[in-house]
Amino acid sequence: MNKDISLKGISRIDAGSTHGWFVRAYRNKKTYSKFFSDSKFKNRDMALSKAIEERNTLKKQISKIKKKPTKRRIVQTDSRNKTGELGVSKSSKKAKNGLYYECYSVSWKPKSGKQKSTSFSIKRYGDNEALKMAIDLRRKMMCQIHGNDFYN
Question: To pair with 76 at 20 to 30 A between CA atoms, which of 17, 29, 48, 146?
C-alpha cells in the first residue's frame, strides 16, 4: 500500500472470523458506514482499495448535505472565577522590557473558533479601575455578540 494514501475514516477490523476494512463518516449527527470484507473482495489489499473508493465517494456525497449550525454554549457562571465576571481574570504578564506586571485580562469569542483578549494594567489604572474597565469591556463585547439583553 502507498504510504501517501490517507486512511482517515477507515479502520481495520480483525476480530474472530471478521477481517476487513470499515468506512465511517458523520454529518449532522448521522453516521454513514460500510464494511469491506477481505474474503468478499479476494484479499486485504483489494478490500482496502474498495474501502478507499467508498470513503472518497461518501465524502463527496455528504459534503453536499448542508451542515446544521451548532449552537454555541454560553456559560455565565463558574465556581473557580475570582473576579465575579466570567472572562475576566487577574494575571501577570511579561512586558517587552522583561519585567512582569499585574493586570486584569479580559477575553471573549466574537464567533465560534475565534478568541479575542486584552488586558488593563493595575499599575497604570489601579486595581479597582482596571477591574472595572475589564468588566465593562467584557459586558460590552458579550452584548454585541449575543444581544443587549444578554445580562437580563
Answer: 29
